[in-house]
Amino acid sequence: MKLREHMQIERRTVKHLFSLSKRCCLSTAAGSVVTSLMPYVPIYFSARLIDALAAGEGIEVLALYASLTVGLVALLSLLNSWITVQYELGSKEQDRGLNWVYAEKAMGMSYASIEDREVSLLRERIKYETQTGFNEYCLIYYSRLLVGYVVQMAASVSLSISFFTLSTIPLWQKLAFVGVVIATVLVNILLTSKRSKTINAFYSKCVDLNLIDEKFFSYVDDYRSGKDIRLYGLAWSLAEFDLGKQMSIWRQEAKMELKCLGLKLLDTLVNYGLQLGVYIILIAAALGGGVSVGSIARYASCVLLLLTAAAGAATAIQSLLVNDQYLKRYFEYLDIPNPMYQGSLTVVKRDDNEYYIEFRDVSFRYPNTENYALRHVNLKFRVGEKLAVVGMNGSGKTTFIKLLCRMYDPTEGEICLNGVDIRKYDYDEYMALFSIVFQDFQLMAFSLGQNVSASAAYDRTRAEECLERAGFDGRLSDMPKGLDTVLYQHFDREGVEISGGEAQKVALARALYKDAPFIILDEPTAALDPVSEYEVYSKFDQIAGDKTAVYISHRLASCRFCSEILVFDSGNIVQRGSHDELMADESGKYHALWNAQAQYYSREAG
Length: 606
Ligand code: ADP
Description:
Layout: H1 3-20, H2 22-37, H3 40-54, H4 59-108, H5 111-115, H6 117-131, H7 136-160, H8 162-165, H9 171-221, H10 223-231, H11 234-287, H12 293-334, E1 357-364, E2 374-381, E3 386-391, H13 397-404, E4 412-417, E5 420-421, H14 427-431, E6 434-437, H15 448-453, H16 460-469, H17 473-478, H18 500-514, E7 518-522, H19 530-538, H20 540-544, E8 548-553, E9 564-569, E10 572-577, H21 579-584, H22 589-605
Parallel strand pairs: 3-8, 3-9, 6-7, 7-8
Antiparallel strand pairs: 1-2, 1-4, 4-5, 9-10
Helix pairs in contact: 1-2, 1-12, 2-4, 2-7, 3-4, 3-12, 6-9, 6-12, 7-12, 9-11, 9-12, 11-12, 16-18
The structure holds adenosine-5'-diphosphate.
């Protein structure tokens, strides 16, 4: 990475941290300066005191130095306490902001990115790296140290610079002094860079293993997997699998720690060796005379602090440089674009719901896959049409809906709304046209009414009406707090567990509450009992009202009531027509599917 890139990354991070909490950034820097300056007050005044004693100064001078030492240290301590309080307050602000970054990014991403395995690996990786102290936290930590070390170095140099002006000290001693400082910095740079490389290589290997471990705990913790784990005795095989992966991490970590320990030992030995060198030079200078006793003490303290600070600064700079590689990855994730938001055209609100959708030779492949999930799909919806989409599993029905709702954009061809490519419309306005119930819909652990309305404040009468239309009215009257009953017990001990079929009805009510011109139901009766299923499709016209409705199912009987049926096979629309028209074609896919299912039902009935 070039220096310019390092600068850009660090500038961006600091700007980001400032935007999260100015208080935290300023108090971090101020705290660092004050703590670094504190040891120099007694060093400076003690030297003055020793020299004053040696010179036989009066009690007033001695008392002045003593009270200045204590007074200044007390003042700096008080200042530091106030800064610490500011830092504590600011760091909470900053932590909240940093945690929110992930949620905000995930919510603002296109659905395609959310489903993309590479993106989720990247997200997990940077999350893991942040938790282990890289990214912003690393920059904060080492910048704070660096500021402190720089202050310490400046203070040490200014208090020991007179060493070089003393004519009584030979040149070789002065050069040796400088040489020791340079050697300390170089050794640190070398050893720290080796250590960072070892740690970096270990963390890169860990990411996949940690993802597996996290998944293991999500299975173990989640009550939904509890039944299968118990019934199929999965506990031990899961534990064995996870333990195997854990052992692999531990082994690699132990190796990495051992290597780092070796490097640290070497570093410590060299540093103390160099410090010994400084003492020898100073003792030689003292023996040679021409340096006061107080100055010798001051030089010794300052130079040792200078060496520690120089070594620390070298480590901090190295760590910051290494961390820039992590930050680069972090920003790569934050910068993943959302192509859905490129369009800006307004979707004209039409009271007559005259919206036409057309698929023009649309083909689609999921990212990183070879096979087409949809191939050359051509289709026009008429307004108010009740369209059924049928086909075997994997034939492309859900993908068709995902494209219609702009979860993905077509690989080839275009989808048009009233003749204009849907990519040109404002994304949020376009999305507002659709109410969808996906097979894998998700309800949240909020109140029933909030789930139906998808908002905190809502129209209660309308929510009740929608629940009634979705066939949930009977269950609603049993709910202890009606619309205010909280679903599930994640956030509320009095939350109510509802069955899969009941949840599906609530999801349907949510789609009705949105009152969008298009209503799309993906296998909406899969979890319903036969009576509720019959209710949904016999009342489907009434449920959908004047909206354009798309009804997806692999159960052909439940689609019979639709005026128009699309038959999907291997990503293509192979037939289109009413039930009677499709049945008339005895060589067609629909006829074959119908007969296969009828046979199955009649055999079951018999
Ligand atoms: P259906 O809804 O008819 O059961 P889908 O539209 O879900 O079928 O799937 C069509 C094809 O696309 C299948 O071969 C399926 O494996 C593939 N597919 C679905 N979702 C993804 C995905 N996220 N990534 C890759 N392939 C997918």
